[in-house]
Design goal:
- By secondary structure, the protein is α+β, with helices and mostly antiparallel strands.
- Helices cover about 30% and strands about 25% of the residues.
- It is built from 3 helices and 6 strands.
- It has a 6-stranded antiparallel beta sheet.
- Strand 3 and strand 4 form a beta hairpin.
- Helix 1 crosses helix 3.
- The two termini are about 25 Å apart.
- About 30% of the residues are buried.
Length: about 130
């Protein structure tokens, strides 16, 4: 994986601590950052500047955009990502409680999408 900036490294370390008890956690380079995956689904991605891309339930999108430091996620200049993708400014997650709020929102969505995945006849989840 590519080298991380100090801000990104610190944020990844903090997120790791919050998801340490989850099964099947891994990291991949994605969306220009270091994505934290749980159950093969991205929950958050730590950006190089210490911002956090968060994947949340689309139905909660507008309410979560009202949180301090939250804005519609963008993929490149002028191209918004869909509902359920929010970027949170580094200053809004400098406090561990606020970071936990966003990781919890992402994990809530992760559990919903993981639970509704189709299963094979032997009960294994399909990708």
């Amino acid at each position: 994986m590519a080298a991380m900036t100090p801000e990104q490294h610190s944020l990844v370390q903090r997120v790791r601590g919050l998801v340490a008890g989850e099964p099947d956690v891994r990291e991949v380079s994605m969306f220009g950052g270091r994505a934290i995956m749980v159950n093969d689904k991205m929950i958050v991605s730590a950006g190089k500047s210490g911002d956090l891309l968060v994947r949340v339930e689309a139905g909660r999108h507008d309410a979560l955009l009202a949180e301090p430091g939250a804005e519609q996620a963008r993929m490149g200049t002028g191209r918004d990502m869909g509902p359920g993708w929010i970027t949170v400014a580094p200053t809004a997650i400098s406090d561990d409680e606020r970071l936990a709020f966003w990781v919890d929102a992402a994990m809530s969505h992760n559990r919903v999408i993981t639970d509704r995945e189709p299963r094979s006849k032997n009960g294994a989840r399909r990708s």
